[in-house]
């Protein structure tokens, strides 16, 4: 009985562990952040620091940049999704039309690394992060606020 309770306690503690980025993931995050225009990069860094400083939010997941700059070829690949390729439509912009196709990049996409190593694009987490991004810089626009095509992971200046 004690072993079962101890096992359950360890499982609960592991589930509440703060997700950690590997060294490789950390380097990737630094490289993606370096692609952003300075104002967007600063807003992201400020919002992330505030997120990580909150013990409740930190346990919910660690914000990470999934994409900043993307090539026109990558943009076209995403455009085909939901049209000539399977999957949901994720963009209405072709290669060269997206803010993601410029360097320095005025757009980035965010997701959350969870304690179990999985990724989440939770609308609730993204809306909380959006508040921090917009508080960091009033010029930040969040795709979750767009009326026609909601793009919750997307932030731009």
At CATH's second level, what is the architecture of the domain at 22-69 and 105-156?
2-Layer Sandwich
Gross morphology:
globular
Count of separate DSSP helical elements: 6
Could you tell me the radius of gyration in angstroms? 17 Å
Decide which structural class fits the backbone.
Answer: alpha+beta
Got a strand count?
5
Please give the share of residues in helix.
Answer: 40-55%
Distance, first to last CA? 56 Å
Strand content: 5-15%
User: What is the CATH top level name of the domain at 22-69 and 105-156?
Assistant: Alpha Beta
- This entry's quaternary arrangement is single chain
Summarize the main sheet. 5 strands, antiparallel
Which segments are poorly predicted (pLDDT under 50) over 5 or more consecutive residues? none
Classify the fold: give the CATH topology of the domain at 22-69 and 105-156.
Muramoyl-pentapeptide Carboxypeptidase, domain 2
Following the backbone from N to C, one meets helices and strands in this order, namely HHHHEHEEHEE
**Average pLDDT, to the nearest integer?**
92
